[in-house]
Structures are given as C-alpha cells and as structure tokens.
Automatic annotation (TrEMBL):
Homology family: Belongs to the eukaryotic ribosomal protein eL15 family.
One BP annotation, GO: cytoplasmic translation
Domain of life: Eukaryota
Protein name per the record: Ribosomal protein L15
PANTHER family: LARGE RIBOSOMAL SUBUNIT PROTEIN EL15 (PTHR11847:SF4), RIBOSOMAL PROTEIN L15 (PTHR11847)
Length: 568
C-alpha cells in the first residue's frame, strides 16, 4: 500500500481512536486562528492532490471556517411526512426561489391562494444566506476566500474538520500571474479572463454540485443550463405563423401583394384572398402568410433593378458578350478614364453614355493609344528638373559640374527629379557665384590674393587647374570653406567640391580643356546609338584592356578612336 493510499484509508476511518484524538486537537487549534488564513501545507495531501494541488510555486492553500447550519430539513410550509426522522421540527428553513425545490413550488403556486402568500414572499423577507440555502457549505467557503483573495483563482476545495458549531475547509488557490502557472499547459487554462471568480458563478466542483449538474439522464432535464433558464424555456409559449410556398399558394388562387419598403423584411409578401365577382374566393387563408424572409438589402436591390442605370449596365454587358472588339474597347476606355474599373455598375450613367456614343459613331482606339488626361499644373520642382535635364543635354560642362555636385552634396543621385527644389536652386546659386568671380576677377589678380581667402580659392577653382599656377601659394592653400548655403538630407554641412592640392579633384574638373572636349565627343558618340556604344566597347576591349571611361586615357588614344570611326 502506498503512502497516499494509506492516508486515504486513515481519513476514511474517522472514528478510530487516533483520528478522533487528532480531530479534537486540530479543531481546538483551528478555533484559535482567523476564519480565513493561509496554510503552509495541505492537511490532507492525498485529497489535495486529487483536487489538483501541486507542490510547486503558484499553488496556495487557504483554510476557511464556516458556521454550520441547523438540523432543520428543507420542507415546504414546515410539513414533515413521517416520524420519527422529522419529529420535533416546528419551523423550517427558508426556501429560495432560486433553489430547485423553490423554483418548482413557486411555479405551482396559484395567484389567488392566500394561504401561500407567505411562502411567495420568502425571498423578500429572508436573509441572503437563507435565500442561498440550497448551496453547500463548501461552496460558501470558496466564495469567502475568493472575495478575500481577489488576485487568486479558486481551483477546488475539500473538507478538513468540524465540530458542533463550525466546519473547516481547505481551498486550493492558484496565482494566475505566476510564471510557473502560465507556462504549464495543464493549468494555464485558469489564467483566462473568463475564469475570474469562478466560485461566485458556480463553476467549481462544489458549485456544480449545488446546481445539480452532477446528475445525468432524464432526471437532469430541468437542470441544464440552469434552473432559471430551464424554467423560463419551459414556461415560454411560442406561436409560430403559418408559412407556405409561394408557388403552391398561387396555384391555390392566393395572390401576393408586391413588396413595399414599408412592410417588414420578414413579411414582404403577404397572401391575400382573391376576389372574384365581388365575392371572396372559397379557398382563402386563415392566417397571415409570409413567403420568405428578405433582407432590406435584397429589397432595395430588387427595387433598383428597374431604373435607367440598370438598362445601361445591361447594355454594356450584352455588348461585351456579343463582340470581343467591344469588350476590348470597353477595357481601353475604362483604363484611360475609369481608373481601370471595368464593372459598368460602378460607373455613372454619363460615363457609360459617352462610351456608347463613341462606340456607335465608329471611334476605335488602339491598345497603345492613351487618352488625354486632364491637364495638371506642373510644380516648381518639376519645372526646375526639366530645366536641369535640358542643361545636361545641351552642355557637357553643365553635366560634369552637376555630376560632381551631386556626388558630394546629393548622395550620388544625378536625377534632378529626385531632389528637392531648394537643392536645385542651391546648385544654380553655386554656379552663379563662381561664374561671377570668374568673369569679374582675372587670373593674375586671383594669384595675388591672400592664400587663405575664400575669393582666391573660388577664383582658382574656376579659372584653371592648380598646376597652372606657381606651387608656392598652392602649398599654403587650404580646403575651401565657402560652400553653398544648403545642406544634405540630414541637415549637415556639405563637403567641399574642389581640393587645393596638386593632382586633386580640381585637376579633373578644370584640367586639360582639349582632352575634355575629346571625352565629351566620345560620350556623345556613345549616346547617339547602340551601335556607336558597341564600337567604343570593342575598341576598349581590344586596345585599352577593357577600360571604358574616356577620361582615363591619353589624348592620343582618344584622337585615334575619333579618326578611326569618324566621330563627329
């Protein structure tokens, strides 16, 4: 015999000398403690494990003291049938209307019986404890500890001890917010919100027993889902209207009124008797007849199918089914002016009439033809972007300056349409500033300027390469600080465009102008046609080791290519 089985047998034999002695000691100890207190461990480990207790974190045990009731039997009007079991009982326990016996008795009480008025008013004169007399004391103990520990959930309970006045129960509580409980798939169901205060709603084992849900079979037909629900269901009288098939009713001579928006959705077709020669038909209904339940949306749709819009929609659909050409023309028309929506029911009547007029007049459109859209006023950024693109096409120097400007200030994005308007304006201001210096300040004067002045740096960058000037001032030049008054996307100052050292970027921007013209001619030749680009690539692969950038080669090599292929 195992340990738990041994404990179970000991608790089963409560009248043994050992158990009676332990019961007296325990009841004396429990009387000294509060009515609801927490236990360090369950008094009955075998019973606790049976009801779901686990010796792990998240499980708690509370002991509750409940006062015992009297020995009065729950009988109606205090009448006991039989002796000596009911002998000596001169008053009876109040019967609640919510109890099984109270619900049955209350439903059987006639309204004109004055002798039962006191029994009907039991619920108004009795205390809450008496109104819930049908419940057992274990359920009451669970409710008390559930109200005291609102953050815990009641799992189950069991009897521990009793004396002549009180009964003690131990209630197993679960902490729904403990990690061990939430991670355990066998108990985490109690963490759901619907399990809050399940003891107050009769969902525990004691509550289900008090509700009579432990019974099965025919004797439990009035118990589920509850006494009150079963009583209301059985006391409710339903009178259904007589319904019949419309076609069968018409065959019998019954006429149906047309649907009206003022009639009920479920009674849209009412059968009325047919009148012949001023007399009612011998076959007439005795009840109000409804054909079928129609929703309000179906009723509105049936009324809207008879208008001119429905005729236009039907015309377009029939035209598409009859002619593939008409279907194609309707699709092109919708893509151009109807935002790609081809369902004629989703367009206005004017839209459909315009298409029908054009189609009937013989107008046909090709798949590549796009209808003219409504003119849109271009924004300032779009106008500047078009201007910059035209400048790149017409001027190679503009294109080169724009490329280097975008490489340093614009994140390497050369498309003017992808930049803001203020960025394009800043580039134009940058060119205007340096062009003004180049036109107003000659080269000898720029050389005589102080080495650290911004005007000297700007003039030297525009007028020529640093190698064209003496090297003494060049060694003392610093990086230019006069940047355009714009920033990049994050608002940080933009880097320098020109560098003041020999062999730096200034030599590339303002280098040999003869070579620049050759490079420009070759690039223009490549853009003229794919065949021209293929000629340059073949020349680079065979003669220049695959280097296709014209700026990386000598002038003699570029002149050889121009003379060989007669580059304009």
């Amino acid at each position: 015999m195992g340990a738990y089985k041994y404990l179970e047998e000991m608790w089963r034999k409560k009248q043994s000398d050992v158990m009676r002695f332990l019961a007296r000691l325990r009841t004396w100890e429990y009387r000294q403690l509060p009515a609801v207190h927490r236990c360090n461990r369950p008094t009955r480990p075998d019973k606790a494990r049976k009801v779901g207790y686990k010796a792990k974190q998240g499980y708690l045990v509370y002991r509750v003291r409940v006062k015992r009731g009297d020995r009065k039997k729950r009988v109606a009007k205090g009448i006991v049938y039989g002796k000596p079991c009911g002998q000596g009982i001169n008053k009876w326990k109040a019967i609640s209307r919510l109890s099984p016996l109270g619900a049955i008795l209350y439903s059987l009480m006639p309204d004109n019986d004055d002798s039962l008025d006191s029994a009907k008013n039991i619920t108004s004169t009795s205390t809450p404890e008496e109104q819930q007399a049908v419940r057992n004391l274990r359920n009451i103990a669970e409710e008390r500890v559930g109200r005291k520990c609102g953050g815990l959930r009641v799992l189950n309970s069991y009897w521990v001890a009793q004396d002549a006045v009180h009964k003690w129960f131990e209630v197993v509580m679960v902490d729904p917010f403990h990690k061990c409980i939430r991670d355990d798939p066998r108990i985490n169901w109690i963490c759901k919100n619907v399990m809050k205060h399940r003891e107050l709603r009769g969902l525990t084992a004691a509550g289900r027993k008090a509700r009579g849900l432990l019974k099965k079979g025919k004797r439990a037909t009035k118990l589920r889902p509850s006494y009150r629900a079963a009583y209301r269901k059985h006391s409710l009288m339903r009178l259904r209207r007589f319904r019949c098939d419309r076609s069968r009713s018409e065959a019998r001579g019954w006429a149906f009124a047309p649907p009206s928006p003022w009639t009920d959705a479920g009674c849209s077709h009412i059968a009325v008797p047919t009148v012949v020669s001023g007399l009612e038909s011998p076959i007439s209904p005795k009840w109000r007849i409804s054909h079928r339940t129609q929703s309000r949306a179906q009723l509105n749709a049936s009324q809207g199918n008879n208008g001119p819009m429905a005729d236009l929609v039907a015309t377009v659909k029939e035209l598409q089914r009859a002619s593939p050409e008409a279907k194609e023309q309707w699709g092109l028309y919708c893509e151009a002016k109807g935002q790609g929506v081809r369902d004629p029911a989703k367009h206005e009547a004017g839209f459909i009439l315009t298409f029908l007029d054009q189609y009937n007049s013989g107008v046909r459109f090709n798949s590549g033809v796009r209808f003219e859209q409504e003119p849109r006023e271009p924004s300032g950024g779009e106008v500047l972007a078009d201007l910059f693109k035209e400048g790149q096409r017409r001027s190679s120097h503009w294109r080169t300056a724009w490329q280097y400007y975008c490489q340093h200030y614009g994140g390497g994005v050369n498309d003017p349409a992808k930049h803001e308007a203020h960025f394009l304006v800043a580039f134009m201001d940058f060119l205007g500033q340096h062009g003004h210096l180049a036109l107003t300040l000659p080269a000898p004067m720029a050389q005589s300027l102080p080495a650290h002045s911004s005007g000297a740096r700007s003039a030297w960058a525009v007028l020529g390469a640093p190698m064209a000037h003496p090297s003494a001032p060049m060694n003392s030049f610093q990086r230019p600080r006069a940047n355009p008054a714009v920033g990049n996307a994050v608002g940080t100052p933009m880097p320098d465009l020109y560098r003041g050292s020999v062999g730096g970027r200034a030599a590339v921007v303002a280098g040999d102008r003869g070579k620049d013209s050759l490079v420009t001619r070759i690039k223009s030749f490549q853009r003229s046609s794919p065949e021209s680009k293929e000629k340059w690539w073949v020349f680079c692969d065979s003669e220049l080791a695959g280097a296709r950038d014209p700026a990386r080669h000598e002038c003699s090599v570029l002149e050889l290519f121009i003379a060989t292929y007669q580059v304009p």
